[in-house]
Design brief:
The complex is a heterodimer of chains A (156) and B (420). Helices cover 65% and strands 0% of the residues of chain A. Chain A has 156 residues and is mostly helical. Chain A has two domains: 56 residues; 77 residues, no CATH class. In chain A, helix 1 runs antiparallel to helix 2. Chain A is flat. The relative contact order of chain A is 0.08. By secondary structure, chain B is mostly helical. Chain B is 73% helix and 1% strand. Chain B has a two-stranded antiparallel sheet with strand order 1-2. Chain B is globular. Chains A and B meet through helix 1, helix 2, helix 3, helix 4 and helix 6 of A and helix 8, helix 9 and helix 20 of B.
Amino acid sequence: MRISPTKFISLLFFVLSVFYLYTAYNIQVFAFDENAPFNARTFPIYLGWAGIILSSLKIILPEKVTTEVNHKHLDYKSIIYLIIISLIYAAVILKIGYFISTSLFLFVSYYFLGERRWGLMFILSFPFVAAFMYLLHGLLNIYLRDPFLKYIGVMG
Amino acid sequence: MIEGILIGLSTALSLTNILMVMVGCFAGTIIGMLPGLGPMTAIALMIPITYGFDPSTGLILMAGVYYGAVFGGSTSSILLNAPGIPGTVATAFDGYPMAQQGKAGKALAIAAYSSFAGGTISAIFLLVAAPSLSKVSLAFRSPDYFALMILGLTAISAFSSKGQFLKAMMMVVLGLMLATVGQDSLSDITRFTFNNMNLTDGISFVLIVMATFAMSEALTIIFRGKDPNRAAKQISLTELGSIKVNKEETIKMAKTIPRSSILGFLIGVLPGAGATIASFLAYGMERNYVNEEEKQKFGKGSVHGLSAPETANNAACSGSFVPLLTLGIPGSGTTAVMLGALLGFGIQPGPRLYQTNPEIFWSVIMSMYIGMVVLLILNLPLIPYIARILAVPRNYLIPLILFFSVTGIYLMSFNNFDIF
């Protein structure tokens, strides 16, 4: 049996709503608030039920318009690479600092998206990030935390 | 009102703000021109830069980006038949055939003049309508605010296309679910944090905006990268031709612009409608207004057919500021991003903005006039050069979008958790 992407997402939303509702019922409220008409639990409970009802309707009701997706034209490889690079970038940005992590992220992303002009790749990563940092930190006075540049004495 | 206009003028005419309008219009034109990137993405990318400015300057910059992006979107519509934004789809109906006839320069000039006129006329309407609406909204009490919130949420159903109502409402519920994460504002009880300290303050609106607009846009462009229909549109940019508009064409524009401006503004004011619907409606309305001979030219390079959607989409942009500035309801996705930016500045747009921050209210309105003039002066002579930017390969474009998005989030909190 084939399930359309919309119905599949609705199913995921249904599961999320059930989990949300279960968590909503378990929110600890103050003892004196327990029987109040409106406490910290009330709105989430309504939302949980609304999510369940809406997603159920979406799953049950027939779909009038179905869009055919041609998977042959979708670039899964590049997107997986880019998500992995982005996750690594997010994990290391605070540890190795904004400048190095961002420059490397840009350089590696260009490479994985098929670029091979090394000179241009370099200019649009390291000097570009340095110029952007100067714009934010030097000219606009926006604080950019970078432990590495601080350690080597480039940033105050 | 005169006092307000003077306050707005004094703020908008400061050197920094004029510079910001120019930068915004120029940057917006470039970003909006790139197929797939609209004003929403353009403004989301500007958020990290605006952190260093005061709220008026930040909002003026974003407003400049907004008009610029809408104008830029028409350039790719006319030259490549690849609309940069949905609001310029109708522009391509007659703009692209005109470009194919060797009159690309003329088509771009007509688009520029129409955008200018539509935006300026609409800004006058805004000047008159916004204070009146604000006066009414000053009488708002708690039940009225509650009704307003319900209106805002139900207006989302208007965003959805036919048959997509359930989907839209599911996303409303998801948005509200995300908003309940963190401390309850009434009792301070933490909800849905799962003992994670990073969630105690809730999930930032700017974070959601970056994730749902800028990043998803970038990933979608990669995802559809192999589509041959898109690749076929990467044609070489040949001669643009003259940008001069003759007397006959000027008369045609003069007839189209007033009616399309009014329609565009009214559609823009309605929450959820926006530039796309305005441009299509204006195109349809214009087709019904013109004589039989002109009607036959529609779809083959008609001046009326090009001018009407271009006027209406810019008029709708100014119109969409009415619900944002007076009621705090974003009328479109783009103004929703701007709402997020305003909240980031610690300003609550809504009925009381007119009283609490008049300089912001008026300076944004006054900057619209300056923005329209800047857009015309800056972009018209630069059309042939700006058009070359359409050739930027996605290999560079996508990582740069991700870079700006992550920087925005990083600047906001310096927290790995938010970036994840």
